[in-house]
Amino acid sequence: MDIRDLLTARPIAHRGLHDGNVHCMENSLPAFEAAVNRDFAIELDVQLSADHVAMVFHDESLDRLTGESGLVAERTAAELRSVTLSGTDACIPTLAETLAFVSGRVPVVIEMKDNGDRNRQLPLAVAGDLVGYSGPVAVMSFEKQLLSHFRKSGSPVPFGLTAEGIGGPALAEHEEALKLGISFVSYHVKALPNAFVARVREDFGLPVITWTVRTPEDVETTRLHADQMTFEGFIP
Predict the structure, then answer these.
(1) 3-state secondary structure of 42
(2) Which helix (H) or strand (E) holds 229?
(3) Mean pLDDT computed over 212-234
(4) 17 and which of 33, 35, 116, 174 could share a cystine (Cβ 3.0–4.6 Å)?
């Protein structure tokens, strides 16, 4: 699937179609199934476990979303798989498990989170999990180091920059990502319009998606200045 079709054909559910972490938790298999049932694409986050397995979880710490505390990076994949998400029966899934679950039914956009001194290992783990996956999928990150290592992995999966900011220094830094061969940009909706996003769309012809769209004003900003939205808290 062409990257533009992958990213723009349908709205993208931020961390799956969760309900604000009341009964259906973000980055959980039930949230991903809810997105599939509505035919939305899925955005998800990955962190690295202590034994170098890509886990689908946003935070560095377990505290906000589980009944436990401590760092994700200090637990093995097996230990993390046994941790339930607060108030539910859902557990923290691996990326491999999640991809098998989605099985190409809708596009998946994977955001690699900053893993500090292990920023080389996370892209390799993600690239390894993507081997043989035939469904529509893309990878992105705020960290250019992560994108560089993902590119060096040799994975054919398209990758893009997650970004924010409106000041000159921030926009100039984002320009550096264009040298990595990115295929798209995911930009903070509150920072639009800006010169970098306009350049990405007009000069490079790359699609731009927004994050995180929660209001009618955000939807309109996306319509005017981007190609698709990553949404949360409502049904488009």
Answers:
(1) strand
(2) strand 228-231
(3) 98
(4) 35
Other beta carbons less than 10 A from residue 95's beta carbon? 24
Q: Domains in the chain, start-ordered, CATH in brackets?
A: 3-166 (3.20.20.190)
The contacts of residue 209 (CB under 8 Å, 6+ apart) are 7, 8, 12, 109, 184, 185, 186, 187, 226, 227, 228, 229, 230
The model's pTM:
0.98
Q: What does the pLDDT look like over 56-71, one tens digit per residue?
A: 999 999 999 999 999 9
> Token pair of 149, please?
């290592």
Mean pLDDT of 200-225: 98
CA distances (Å), 82 to each of 51, 91, 181, 200, in order? Answer: 15, 6, 38, 42
Distance CA 185, CA 199 (A): 11
Which pLDDT does position 118 carry in this prediction?
87
Q: Omega into 193 within 30° of 0, i.e. cis?
A: yes
Q: Rounded to an integer, what distance in angstroms lies between the CA atom of residue 63 and that of residue 186?
A: 27
Q: What is the pLDDT of residues 18-50, one digit of tens each?
A: 999 999 999 999 999 999 999 999 999 999 999
